[in-house]
Amino acid sequence: MNIKWIKKPGSLALIMAAIVVSCSQERSPVTGWAYNDPTNGGFEKPPYEEQETGPGLVLIEGGTFSMGRTETDVTYEWNNVARRVTISSFYMDETEVSNFSYLEYLFWTSRVFGPTFPDIYYKALPDTLVWREKLAYNEPYVEYYLRHPAYRDYPVVGVNWLQANDFCAWRTDRVNEFILIREGLLEHVPSPSDQDYFSTEAYLSGKWQGQLKQKLPSFDEQNPERDVRMEDGIFLPKYRLPTEAEWEYAAYGLIGNTIGERITDRRIYPWNGHGVRNATDKYMGQINANFVRGAGDYMGTAGFLNDNADVTAPVYSYWPNDYGLYNMSGNVCEWVMDVYRPNTLQDADEFRPFRGNVFTTQKRDSTTLIGGLGGEILTNVDGPVYQKFKHKVNNPTTHGVSGETAEVIDSVLTIMTNDINGNNNATQEGKSDIPGRVQWREVSSAVSTDNLDERRNYKTADYINYMDGDVNSSIFYESGEDAYTDKADKLMYEYAKTSLVNDKSRVYKGGSWRDRAYFLNPGVRRFLDQRQANAWLGFRCAMTRVGSPVGLGK
Fold it and tell me: Can you give the CATH number for the domain in which 151 is found?
């Protein structure tokens, strides 16, 4: 991991000293009792300044902007009608995730899960065959693009939406693990196994079985030591994909066009002006992004290549926008979190708009419930896919290939086929059934502890279809008592019959090395099934900003 990006807020010793010296005399403004006092129970107020900036991230200061179309809708889809919304501050990767960063993820996955659960590694592999075309010779990219060092700084492609989410989950755990090691709380384990690798959610739930170096001192006389808690502010929030609104807001970089509260120039691209060439005196005429300039022109004429890239370009190519983000137009399109619906921009909230909510809660053991509450949090031990895989490896048969190799291939193909058909329980909304991680389930009215009958802001788990695809919005449903009958036969979006839209259709944004200039506009919306990948589609991660939207000193 490239640790230079992590800003160290202070050593653990200084933090503990600050607790004892500066906080021991502070008292509650509502009760008068002292914080951090063992004699009254030891309720703690840890010192905290602000959120630490994670590796690779740039702070995107939020605000209001006009989301959607900024020029003629040449595709006549009318799926991005302009609307003013507000985005909270958040963090986003400076660049697209590179081949080398993804290879780090594959190396770790192979090292930890390979000996016992090799299918986890195989499921993480990008689809390098996306480079193949029927009437083009792209085999060199199939063989070399992912792993050859010449392409290590190029954006990873062939990654579907589910794999991108798995990468984000892995990155969250590795960054938080490094923070605990840095602060002297965690033993560095050079070779973790599938039994003791660090998981942030499992640690916070008390289910992690790894090796601690030391614990934090506690002001509770009965428990002098304790684990790190969410209240300490040591852990970073989860890495994730950005929402469509966040990605579009960050791409425009309108902070560079703001005087006071007035945006002086509305942008078509992440840079000023109506053209795709640089207008400054020093770089006059140079291309601002990697895209197709015209029919058959992917990189220009020999001796003066217009974008200096035949396919993708290194992630730090061209000029960053005013947030310091590279390649927010061109190079590769990028996955975002949202489920695609054509009317989302008209229906979604004005504050932090997003479509794709499926509300979940941690699974708990019903046998340990006390008075109908609590219960032990469950983690994955052996999911059904992995039990099946191990059984097949331990009992090899022959399917055209002999020995264990044949069974590995057969198992992996079975997993992939089930996932494509939507029948695999191992992956739901990007959460993989990986041993050691906390299990999650959708909230349900059938579970009394979820208390959905008492809620007013939501009554069910899945709101993907809300106002666009549900009973109330569909012209195919009947009203009255029969509204929900034969629901499967009266879908608003009949996938592969009248539409390619379903609940697995995910939005991707930005133009790519295969697109014309029109698609460089951040407001353009396109979608693809979350289980598919392409040679022109990559991703970058984001992270929620907690607390002040501007940070210290402003």
Answer: 3.90.1580.10
- The SS3 assignment for 417 reads helix
Alpha-carbon distance of 173 to 171, in angstroms, equals: 5
CB 58 within 8 A of CB 323: yes
Neighbours of 26 (CB within 10 A): 12
Residue 333: phi and psi, rounded to 5, are: -70, 165
Question: CB neighbours of 372 closer than 8 A, spacing ≥ 6?
Answer: 448, 449
Residue with tokens 């003013």: 84
* C-alpha pair distances (Å), 273 with each of 112, 279, 280: 49, 8, 11
All residue ranges of the chain with pLDDT < 50 are 1-8, 10, 14, 18-24, 383-431, 480-481, 488
What's the confidence (pLDDT) of residue 430? 37
| Amino acid found at 243 | T
**146 and 103 in contact (C-beta within 8 Å)?**
yes
Exposure of 368 in the CB half-sphere (CA atoms within 13 A): 8
- 28: amino acid identity, one letter: S
Beta bridge partners of residue 294, listed in sequence order:
297
Residue 429: per-residue pLDDT: 40
Q: Does 411 reside within a domain?
A: no
What is the predicted pLDDT for the residue at 142? 97
- What is the secondary structure of 472-510 as a DSSP string? TT-SSSPPGGGTTTTGGGS-SS-BTTTBS--TTEEEEES
Evaluate whether 111 touches 375 at the Cβ level (below 8 Å): no
pTM of this prediction exceeds 0.70: yes
Number of alpha helices (DSSP H) and beta strands (DSSP E) in the chain: 10, 22
Q: How many domains does the chain have?
A: 1
Pairing of strands 526-529, 369-370: unpaired
pLDDT at 159: 98
Q: Would 261 be classed as within a structural domain? A: yes
Query: Strand pairing of 57-60 and 304-305?
Result: unpaired
Rounded to 5 degrees, φ, ψ at 89 are -65, 145
Residue 414 lies in a domain: no
Contact present, 95 and 315 (Cβ < 8 Å): yes
Q: Is residue 395 part of a domain?
A: no
Cβ–Cβ under 8 Å, residues 211 and 187: yes
Q: Read off the pLDDT of residues 281-300 as tens digits, 9 standing for 90 and up.
A: 777 878 889 999 889 889 88
The residue segments making up the domain with residue 146 are 61-183+234-356+506-548
User: Are the beta carbons of 70 and 521 closer than 8 angstroms?
Assistant: yes
Helices (H), 188-307: 200-204, 244-252
Question: Phi/psi of residue 407, each to 5°?
Answer: -70, -35
Q: Please state, in angstroms and rounded to a whole number, the distance separating the CA atoms of residues 96 and 438.
A: 28
Say if CB 463 and CB 472 are below 8 A apart. no
Tokens of 440: 């999650």
Q: Parallel, antiparallel, or unpaired: how do β-strands 526-529 and 505-509 relate?
A: antiparallel
pLDDT at 243: 98
Query: Residue 408: which residues within 8 A CB-CB, separation 6 or more?
Result: 118, 119, 122, 393
Strand partners, 171: none
| Token pair listed for 323 | 């947030």
226: its two tokens: 């304790």
